[in-house]
Design brief:
Blueprint: H1 65-73, H2 79-96, H3 105-122, H4 131-148, H5 156-176, H6 183-196, H7 220-229, E1 237-238, H8 258-266, H9 270-291, H10 297-300, H11 307-317, H12 319-327, H13 344-359, H14 367-386, E2 392-393, H15 405-425, H16 438-443, H17 449-453, H18 472-477, H19 500-503, H20 506-523, H21 536-542, H22 545-563, H23 573-598, H24 606-615, H25 620-643, H26 645-652, H27 657-665, H28 667-677
Parallel strand pairs: 1-2
Helix pairs in contact: 1-2, 1-5, 2-3, 4-5, 5-6, 7-9, 9-11, 9-13, 11-13, 13-14, 20-22, 22-23, 23-25
Protein name: 1,3-beta-glucan synthase component FKS1-like domain-containing protein
GO molecular function: glucosyltransferase activity
InterPro entries: FKS1-like_dom1, Vta1/CALS_N, Vta1/CALS_N_sf
Length: about 675
């Protein structure tokens, strides 16, 4: 997750700069108030030996690193232009952090200021009488020398460095001459920016590199996957953002393949698009290579990606999304237009999901949240590709002058919720019942209520985005926050007690206790042998283990309510009803089983005699057996569902009320097992 937030800064100074040919930049003449700073290694400006400024830049000022690197590259060729580059870097750093509040920003700006004062006196102009003409002529000279001459003899990484420096020089030129547009340089810079994309950095596959073809790009499966992604015919064109990019040099971004089209449609970051493009190509090539391993070498030269390859990748990528739709009884938004003759829609859906995942950052730990985002964006995608009436459309996500609209409008608000909850925890010192973790936030998307409460585009006034750090007084001061209530913890809230040893492992403890009771009864029988269990009197006494089981079940139901008491208000109504019904049923069986058993005892005395007279003259032994069978019925169903998982999956798709009730009744044990494993 790339941090694009602009911090509040550190140093007070005027923001003037070399802006016109008549005015020479004289930083020494400015009234600059310099605060006393700590002496940090490399920042004082008094060390001997060369210092690389780009290595000292604080992380909050990362965008100025290319400018300082360009200054170091051209230092020997033209020190005055290198000085202008550093001055531009200083101006941008001050704009990004005017109060120098970021870590290390004040020290870095102090060092850079020392360096600029020194270079202003020591450097001389070589090509012109003013700084504006100096940078213009040097920019023209640099482009002709490094970008036009000897183009075929230089390596791609070397050309990429030259194009990067040329791009920086054009930014410096615009900074020095902001009020004097020059169409000649604008047109030249436009060509530089387009050629620069051909020498961009890559991880494994050099997709956009000009020059000789790399061996990895000659693999038939790789070539077929690249060709498949570059089939962008019949797709409508997103209207370009005229405010994005350098003014006057960009008529529109270059769209080479399907992921570039998704980049312009949904506002993903360019770096993420390049990474996921390689990711998708390698996935397609690897799956296709496994499926066509016995193909003759001659047939592989004209290889094409098989349809089964894309279908297999679809099932693998969207397995969790399909399960989420089934759980919420939703219709999947992965829809293929009827007139689709190629696999272009499938690749668009796969690319969209990979791009969402690539920019999700910590939201990746909330898989159902990603499903919610993809569900709505897939619907937007289908609306765009199925409507062929217009050749262009307005993208769903756009921020003026920014290339990270999806990050800022979708991921950043959710990330802020995660960050605020982590702040609430105070590094784990606060009770976990007071703040929400990833599971709590993710469980918000387990219900259809999220569609009404959160909506799409996501409503920033939703309770999901309520700031947990605000106090009650802060909420009362803001009228718009009066109706907002922070979403409570929705997941398991543990009360720390040793009773969890029984609650979490109730089946194991029940087995030990009931087995111990049965063995004691058999051991104290007249014969004392294991075969004594077949004697009627001994077998009748062994049957008392079900009364003990009813008591343990009552204890379990009581602990479910007591230990979940802190999360009681956050439970949905159906969960409350299930807890209460289980408690009531446990009390009922705790009364029914002892009463029916006591009536079967011959010559009863005391309390047992009272219950026997209350029951009457029924043949209570058969009644007790029937009660035991009825008591064991839910446990039998639970065991069957646990052993035969395909049967449970089939029943989960059923809309029968009886089946839904049985699944609802046995849900507690499954949820508790999930908590134990997580």
């Amino acid at each position: 997750h790339r941090n694009r937030s602009v911090g509040e800064g550190a140093m007070s100074m005027s923001s003037g700069g070399p802006s016109a040919p008549q005015r020479q930049p004289s930083m020494g003449r400015r009234n600059i108030s310099r605060a006393i700073t700590m002496r940090t290694d490399g920042y004082s400006g008094e060390e001997e030996g060369p210092i690389i400024e780009s290595e000292l830049v604080p992380s909050s000022l990362a965008p100025i690193v290319p400018i300082l690197r360009a200054a170091n590259e051209i230092e020997d060729e033209n020190p005055r232009v290198a000085y202008l580059c550093r001055f531009t870097a200083f101006e941008k750093a001050h704009t990004m952090d005017p109060n120098s509040s970021g870590r290390g920003v004040r020290q870095f700006k102090t060092y850079l200021l020392h360096r600029l004062e020194k270079d202003e006196k020591d450097t001389q102009r070589r090509l012109a009488s003013t700084d504006a003409k100096e940078i213009q002529r040097f920019y023209e000279h640099y482009c002709k020398k490094y970008l036009e001459e000897g183009l075929q003899t230089r390596k791609p990484d070397e050309m990429a460095r030259y194009y990067q420096i040329a791009s920086v020089l054009y930014d410096v030129l615009k900074t020095v001459t902001p009020d004097k547009p020059n169409s000649e340089y604008d047109q030249y810079a436009k060509g530089v920016e387009k050629e620069k994309a051909s020498f961009s950095h890559y991880n494994i596959l050099p997709l956009n590199i000009s020059g000789p073809t790399q061996p990895v790009m000659e693999i038939p499966e790789i070539k077929a996957a690249v060709a498949l992604l570059r089939k962008i015919n019949n797709l409508p064109t997103p209207r370009p953002d005229t405010t994005n990019g350098p003014q006057g040099i960009d008529d529109g971004p270059i769209v080479r393949d399907l992921l570039d089209w998704l980049w312009q449609t949904f506002g993903f970051q360019k770096g993420n698009v390049e990474n996921q493009k390689e990711h998708l190509i390698l996935l397609l090539a690897n799956i296709d290579m496994r499926g066509s391993g016995n193909v003759h070498q001659g047939e592989r030269q004209n290889h094409m990606i098989q349809r089964d390859t894309v279908d297999h990748l679809m099932k693998k990528v969207f397995q969790n999304y399909i399960s989420w739709c089934r759980y919420l009884h939703l219709e999947s938004n992965i829809k293929i237009p009827h007139d689709a003759s190629t696999q272009q829609p499938e690749l668009l859906y796969i690319g969209l999901y990979l791009l969402i995942w690539g920019e999700a950052s910590n939201v990746r730990f909330m898989p159902e949240c990603l499903c919610y985002i993809f569900h709505h964006m897939a619907r937007d995608l289908y609306d765009i590709i199925s409507d062929r009436r217009e050749e262009s459309f307005d993208p769903p996500f756009r921020r003026e002058g920014s290339d990270d609209a999806f990050l800022q409008l979708v991921i950043q608000p959710i990330y802020n919720v995660i960050h605020n909850e982590a702040t609430m925890s105070k590094r784990g010192t606060v009770s976990h019942s007071k703040w929400r973790n990833y599971d709590d936030l993710n469980e918000y998307f387990w219900s259809k209520k999220c569609f009404k409460q959160l909506g799409w585009p996501m409503d920033p006034a939703s309770d999901f985005f309520a700031d947990p750090t605000k106090t009650k007084n802060d909420i009362e001061r803001h009228d718009h926050s009066m109706s907002r209530r922070r979403m409570s913890k929705t997941n398991f809230v543990e009360v720390r007690t040793f009773l969890h040893l029984f609650r979490s492992f109730d089946r194991m403890w029940a087995f030990f206790i009931l087995a111990f009771q049965a063995m004691v009864i058999i051991a104290w029988s007249p014969s004392g042998s294991l075969s004594a269990i077949f004697e009627p009197a001994v077998f009748r006494n062994v049957m008392t283990i079900f009364i003990t089981a009813a008591f343990l079940n009552f204890l379990q139901a009581t602990l479910e309510i007591v230990l979940n008491w802190k999360a009681w208000r956050s439970l949905v109504c159906s969960q409350m009803i299930r807890h209460v019904l289980k408690f009531v049923v446990a009390i009922g069986w705790l009364i029914i089983l002892p009463v029916t058993y006591s009536s079967s005892i011959q010559n009863p005395t005391g309390l047992i005699k009272f219950f026997s007279n209350w029951i009457g003259n029924f043949q209570s032994q058969s009644i007790y057996n029937f009660a035991v069978a009825l008591y064991m019925l839910p446990n039998i169903f639970s065991a069957l569902f646990f052993i035969f998982l395909p049967m449970r999956r089939a029943l989960e798709r059923s809309n029968s009320r009886i089946v839904r009730f049985l699944l609802w009744w046995t849900q507690v044990h499954l949820i508790r097992s999930i908590y134990m494993t997580s």
